């Protein structure tokens, strides 16, 4: 184990840098917070680059540390409390963080025999919404989440936190060209169902038995027109009261469960 | 109209104070942000105490100002941009804000002939979740939202923002004693449906035709035991994947639409 007691420590500097997307892309790692997430990453066979614990956390959780024995001792860093606090003033660091490798892959490499129900997010810009939808997709039994170019980054601290660990449970593609992806999966026989305020069908009147891609759009402008034009169904959630619309992660929850696979 | 150019102005100080609950309770007012909300409050016949606009907003939106002619000129304040910015550094003030009166009432005064479908929130602590559920309840056509003591305050800036105006559209009771409220409405013939991870019934197998109260609980500890014991149905949303749970505002969205009134 290595102790970090200076803000100039290179490893600590890297941890802080990973708040920014360009550095996550550069190093191929993102930050997981909290013991549960770190443990889950290990259970799921993810590659952990290194673990950081505050001095207090390390002292109070020696038992938990033993459960992390899979990580080589020289990749565990104990950071002085004040340093960790100063580095993460805007969030509430849980005393333990890990650098976990980002697993990026391209959509033509996906095993579409296994990916039966897919969620596609078209330029969803709020990281909280993005993370919450990934969590819901995991809960509702979907096989894959596809994020187009223009979405918030899945691996930003806020999005990762909102997934509550689901970022580790479900296959995620990011920075996908939405138009190309839709063309590709249509060719494989998927039905495209797009959620749209201007949809012509009440979602309750639509059911899906085929392989499908369920699409949600940007908070302000909705789904890109090209994708709407290629869709097999445009479905809407009716508004009965005076509200103008629903929050996108709430709308996704309603539709993901309505169209969830039958178990 | 009155110009405010000093941070010591009493009216500006009051506006800033209303970020805190004790002052909202003291003055009986909360802050609405943005033109759309202010306009909606007027349409809904709510009492507007005063309106604040930044110098720039006022200059750029003279037309909109005319639409607010219902508010007496001496209750409209033009605030220097830098002052408004300095006072609301944590949010993005939209250049126009209003003080709107809080309409509090007690549950024994409600017209239960009109309140057919009720949502009850038991100690929901995140203001974003609280506001989002109010927005969804409005969209799904519910008649009333009841917040127990221990909920985040409906009239906090973050909760109000998350409602996207629905705080003005739907009757809201706050700081209610949950146990008393449940006893009261059961006596009036309402069915109590509680959402619980330990629920025995899949929500899809339950339908409601009577008057009902749909209950959601605290993000960590769920619904209070006393309320669970008084419930007619405990329903759960099944988890098909590896996620441990759903976000409470997503869960509320799924159930509110499933049990929404038939139009």
What does this structure look like?
Two copies of one chain form a homodimer. Chain A is of the alpha/beta class. Chain A folds into two domains: 2-101, Ribosomal protein L30/S12 (60s Ribosomal Protein L30, Chain: A); 107-258, Alpha/beta knot (3-Layer(aba) Sandwich), CATH 3.40.1280. Chain A has eleven helices and twelve strands. The first copy, chain A, has helices at 10-17, 21-27, 35-43, 55-60, 62-67, 81-87, 127-139, 157-163, 178-187, 225-229, 248-258; strands spanning 2-4, 29-33, 48-54, 76-79, 96-101, 117-121, 144-148, 171-176, 191-195, 201-202, 212-216, 233-236. In chain A, the strands form two sheets. A seven-stranded parallel β-sheet of chain A has the order 8-7-6-11-9-12-10, with helices on both faces. A five-stranded mixed β-sheet of chain A has the order 1-4-3-5-2. In chain A, α8 links the parallel β7 (144-148) and β8. Chain A is elongated, with a radius of gyration of 20 Å. The interface between A and B is large, with 36 and 36 residues. Chains A, B: InterPro entries: Alpha/beta_knot_MTases, MRM3-like_sub_bind, Ribosomal_eL30-like_sf, rRNA_Methyltransferase, SpoU_MeTrfase, SpoU_subst-bd, tRNA_m1G_MTases_N. Chains A, B: This is RNA methyltransferase, TrmH family.
């Amino acid at each position: 184990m290595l102790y970090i007691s200076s803000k100039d420590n290179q490893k600590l500097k890297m941890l802080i840098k990973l708040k920014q997307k360009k550095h996550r892309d550069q190093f191929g790692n993102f930050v997981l917070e909290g013991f549960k997430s770190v443990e889950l990453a290990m259970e799921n066979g993810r590659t952990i680059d290194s673990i950081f614990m505050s001095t207090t956390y390390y002292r109070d959780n020696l038992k938990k540390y033993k459960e992390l024995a899979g990580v080589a001792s020289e990749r565990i860093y104990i950071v002085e409390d004040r340093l960790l606090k100063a580095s993460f003033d805007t969030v509430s660091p849980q005393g333990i963080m890990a650098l976990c490798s980002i697993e990026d892959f391209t959509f033509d490499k996906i095993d579409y025999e296994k990916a039966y129900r897919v969620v596609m997010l078209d330029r969803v810009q709020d990281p909280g919404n993005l993370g919450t939808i990934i969590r819901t997709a995991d809960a509702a039994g979907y096989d894959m989440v596809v994020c187009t170019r223009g979405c918030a980054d899945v691996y930003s601290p806020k999005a990762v936190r909102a997934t509550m660990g689901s970022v580790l449970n479900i296959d995620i593609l990011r920075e996908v060209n939405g138009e190309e992806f839709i063309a590709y999966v249509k060719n494989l026989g998927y039905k495209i169902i797009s959620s749209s305020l201007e949809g012509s069908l009440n979602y309750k009147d639509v059911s899906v038995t085929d392989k499908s891609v369920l699409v949600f759009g940007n908070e302000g402008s909705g789904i890109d027109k090209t994708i709407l034009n290629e869709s097999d169904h445009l479905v809407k959630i009716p508004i009965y009261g005076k509200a103008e619309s629903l929050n996108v992660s709430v709308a996704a929850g309603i539709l993901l469960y309505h169209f969830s696979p039958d178990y």
